[in-house]
Each structure stands twice: as structure tokens, then as C-alpha cells.
Design brief:
This protein has about 350 residues and is mostly helical. It has one domain (about 1-285). About 65% of the residues lie in helices and about 0% in strands. It has helices at about 1-30, 55-70, 80-105, 110-130, 160-180, 190-210, 225-245, 255-275, 280-285, 285-305, 315-320, 325-355. Helix 2 runs antiparallel to helix 3 (about 80-105) and helix 6 packs parallel to helix 8 (about 255-275). The radius of gyration is 20 Å and the shape is globular.
Length: about 350
């Protein structure tokens, strides 16, 4: 528990202070956000706001995790290192995307196929290592499982390795793009990530208390390194919280694809490593709805030869164009996210009470 508190506290401090310096540095370099011309006109005044602030979230999390490990004298675990690899790897893909936008002064960064190649490369390396017997612990547990699970590794749906890798890829690319789509209003994605990663901190602590490696029994959780995953989750939660101080409306800095792709990938990685892949759809329900709004908009547009289901996708822009103030959309979406997170935690706990 000391490591969780240390990682969270250090991460909060680093991002609160670090983001302030990042704003000044990025502004001096002219690394400002470019705005879509077809979006809400109220967003045009945001042009030039420093972006790539996700670097602070990523660096703050990594430094805080290893700082907590150093201060507590405990070595890093395979699960935590894999999650950080996924977090940093997708952050690097997002950084390249952001840098191309800024350096070439255009709203388009990486081509879609190039971004998918980057996400796929990182996701498949993560998947292969997390399923590899080389990283199994003394009980034979690998960081990830071949089973697809809701709350625990029930083993009812077990996939062959190629299918398991495909599922891991789908979850990671889907989640990273969903958070990326949500990051369109001041503080929306950062605030939602605080709640979802905070929920995963609690899930990991609970799994550690009821871990099969410590207390074998019919209700124990067959996972690997739950306490260390809680350290990473706490660090990311605090990093998003510290960043939100500067990202809340009116935002002084944006996280960019550097932050959104990293955070979305980390969410998927957390679900995979905690054997809660389908529970993520509830805990991260806001991100699911945002991604679905884009899919439905594109599908409806093609099926009806030019008609639109929403005024604009993702969904938050639809409500802006209906006349809602940006801060109103953000707060109401936060409330929806909080309800879904509470519901997800309730389902997680109720399953343990009732028994599997």
C-alpha cells in the first residue's frame, strides 16, 4: 500500500508542477493546437493552445512508478512493466502524430494506415509477451490469459494464441482510439480517465486482497501482480488529476494524441491484465459511446448517401451544435462516466459477494 500512496502522491506533484513548465516551453516553441474548420465555431479561439501535454502524463507516471519502487525497495513486476511498455509505446505513436501536425502546420498527422501500423506493432508485442510462458510466475500464471473474461478468469471462453492476440489487438486499438475521440473538449478525457483509472486502482487492490497466490479458494482471483498494477493505476490516476488542473476549461494545454492514445492503451492493458476485458465496456462506457457515435455516423452517412444521424460526431460535438455550452457538455459527460464507473464497481463487487 505504501507504494500505491507514494506513486500517486509523486505523480500528482510532478504533473501539477511539470505541466506548468510544459505550457511555457511548448508555447515558446510554438507547439500549438490546430483546430478543425468544420467543428463548432467556439473552438476556433483555442487555436494555438499548447498541445502534446500527454508527455507530462506519461513521464510523470513512469517516474512515479519507478520512484515508488525505489523508495519501497521492491522490484518491478512483469505485469507492471508490460503495462508501462504499452503506455509509453502508444504515447510514442501519438507523439509522432502530434509532432507531424505541428511541424507541418496541418490538422492531419500520421496517415490512418501509419497510425494503425504503429498501434498494431505495440499491441502485438504487448500481447505476445503478456501471453508468453517465459513471463509466467512460480504458479504458472502469465500476465495475460488466453481466456476472455468479464470479471474473473473463468476459462469458459479460451482462445488459441492467434485469436487471443487478435482480441488483444482489437481491444487496445479500440480503446486507444476511443479515448482519442473523447479528447475533444477541455478536460473531458482527462476527467473521465481519473474516474476509470481510479476504479481500476480499487479493482487491483481488491484482487490483491483476494488473490489466489495469497488466499486460495473458490472466490479468489487468478491474476498476476495485482498490487503492482494498482501502483501503476494510482500513478496514472494522479497524473491525469494533476494534468486536469491545467486542462480544465478554459484549457491552458491539451494532451494531444500523445496522451489520449497512451491512456486508452493503458485502459485496455489494465483490463487484459486484470482479466476484466468485458467489464471495461462498463467502466469505460463513456469512451464506448463516443466511439459508437462515430461508427454510427459514418455507417448512417454511407447507407443513406449523405444524411447524418448526429449533427456532428463524436457525440460531444453534437450537443455543442445543439446549443449546449462546452462546460455543460463536459460536466454532464463526467456525471455519466461517474455513474457508469460506480455501476461497474458495483457489478464487480456484487459478483464476489454472490460468488462465481
Amino acid at each position: 500500500m505504501r507504494a500505491i500512496l507514494l506513486a500517486g502522491g509523486l505523480s500528482l506533484f510532478l504533473t501539477l508542477i511539470g505541466t506548468r513548465f510544459a505550457i511555457a516551453f511548448l508555447a515558446r516553441r510554438g507547439y500549438g493546437q490546430l483546430i478543425r474548420e468544420d467543428g463548432p465555431t467556439t473552438h476556433h479561439e483555442k487555436r494555438g493552445t499548447p498541445t502534446m501535454g500527454g508527455l507530462v502524463i506519461v513521464l510523470g507516471t513512469v517516474i512515479s512508478y519507478f520512484g515508488a519502487k525505489l523508495l519501497t525497495g521492491r522490484p518491478p513486476t512483469a505485469s507492471a512493466l508490460l503495462l508501462l511498455f504499452l503506455f509509453v509505446g502508444l504515447g510514442a505513436v501519438g507523439f509522432v502524430d502530434d509532432y507531424i501536425k505541428i511541424s507541418r502546420n496541418r490538422n492531419l498527422g500520421l496517415r490512418s494506415y501509419a497510425k494503425i501500423i504503429g498501434q498494431t506493432s505495440v499491441a502485438l508485442v504487448f500481447g505476445w509477451l503478456s501471453l508468453s510462458p517465459m513471463l509466467a510466475d512460480s504458479r504458472g500464471q502469465t500476465p495475460a490469459s488466453h481466456a476472455v473474461s468479464f470479471i474473473r478468469d473463468s476459462g469458459s471462453l479460451v482462445l488459441a494464441t492467434p485469436l487471443a492476440l487478435a482480441f488483444i489487438w482489437l481491444l487496445i486499438t479500440g480503446a486507444s482510439n476511443a479515448v482519442n475521440l473523447t479528447d475533444g473538449l477541455d478536460g473531458l478525457a482527462a476527467g473521465a480517465c481519473v474516474m476509470v483509472f481510479g476504479a481500476y486502482t480499487l479493482v487491483n487492490i481488491w484482487q490483491n486482497n483476494q488473490w489466489c497466490g495469497r488466499s486460495p479458494g473458490p472466490k479468489c482471483y487468478e491474476v498476476r501482480d495485482p498490487l503492482d498494477l494498482a501502483v501503476v493505476a494510482a500513478a496514472i490516476t494522479a497524473a491525469c488529476f494533476g494534468f486536469l488542473w491545467w486542462n480544465a476549461s478554459p484549457a491552458k494545454i491539451f494532451m494531444g494524441d500523445t496522451g489520449s492514445l497512451a491512456l486508452g492503451g493503458a485502459l485496455a492493458g489494465m483490463a487484459i491484465l486484470t482479466r476484466t476485458e468485458f467489464l471495461l465496456a462498463l467502466l469505460g462506457g463513456l469512451f464506448v459511446v463516443q466511439a459508437l457515435s462515430v461508427i454510427l455516423q459514418v455507417g448512417f452517412f454511407k447507407a443513406t448517401k449523405g444524411k447524418r444521424l448526429f449533427r456532428m460526431a463524436p457525440l460531444h460535438h453534437h450537443f455543442e451544435l445543439l446549443g449546449w455550452a462546452e462546460i455543460t457538455v463536459v460536466i454532464r459527460f463526467w456525471l455519466i462516466c461517474g455513474i457508469l464507473v460506480a455501476l461497474g464497481l458495483g457489478v464487480f463487487y456484487a459478483e464476489w459477494v454472490v460468488g462465481s
